[in-house]
Specification:
Elements lengths: L2 E5 L18 E4 L11 H12 L6 E5 L1 H10 L6 E5 L11 H7 L18 H5 L4 H13 L2 H12 L10 E6 L14 E3 L6 H4 L1 H13 L1
Helix pairs in contact: 1-2
């Protein structure tokens, strides 16, 4: 039985994996811990390693922000498998808009108390989703610490990783508006997959995960 650590995306929690089938494995849901203002994704990943005792030969699956953290964890701990869903491996795969947002950090102007109320943007940014999934995303966002959300926005935009560690597997969608697939190299591409394909393309993702985990 493998130990699999699941890391969610920004504004989400373990419920993002509700349709992912990992029966037969020991699953550990990584919950967010409060970051320090000076934390980067790199230093935050080290805190997760320590807090959750992520050891060599573990498996980590990360969605979106969780995928970026999975890369940072894999740079420090030799994982059996580092699996990214709807994410990026390096700064070269990030959308060009990230450069603009670094120099024009409008997110800093948002009062923290407003962040949980931004659920109305979910459908427009994430792609088409059912009413249930839209309500779930809004619920997860409201349950996430506003301090964490604001920190994560800055940490994502300033992520500068250029290293791809060993044993990385990557799956992305060709309709992902947040991380456009044309900038991503060496990934399995799901036709019609949006940034929330972990919900509506779960059957295809589960087939892919089963193949990878059994390899």
């Amino acid at each position: 039985m493998s130990r699999i650590f699941l890391i969610a995306g920004l504004g989400a929690d373990e419920r993002i994996y509700e349709h992912i089938d990992l029966k037969g494995h020991e699953v550990i849901n990584v919950k967010w811990i409060e970051p320090d203002k000076k934390d980067t994704l790199s230093t935050y990943a080290q805190k997760l390693i320590y807090h959750y005792s992520i050891t060599p030969q573990s498996i980590v699956i990360g969605n979106s922000l969780g995928g970026m953290l999975t890369i940072e964890i894999a740079k420090r701990v030799e994982l059996n498998k580092a699996i990214l869903i709807s994410s990026i491996k390096t700064v070269e795969e990030a959308p060009l808009s990230f450069k603009w947002y670094r120099y024009l950090p409008l997110y800093r102007l948002l009062p923290e108390k407003w962040l949980p109320l931004m659920g109305f943007m979910v459908k427009k940014v994430m792609g088409k989703m059912s009413k249930h999934h839209q309500e779930l995303f809004i619920s997860m966002l409201k349950s996430t610490s506003p301090k964490f959300v604001k920190w994560a926005m800055g940490a994502i935009l300033h992520w500068d990783n250029q290293t791809i560690p060993k044993n990385v597997y990557h799956i992305t969608g060709d309709k992902d508006k947040i991380f456009p697939y044309k900038r991503i190299k060496g990934a399995t591409v799901v036709k019609g997959g949006t940034h929330i394909m972990i919900f509506n393309k779960a059957k295809q993702i589960n087939t892919w995960l089963k193949e990878i985990l059994e390899n």
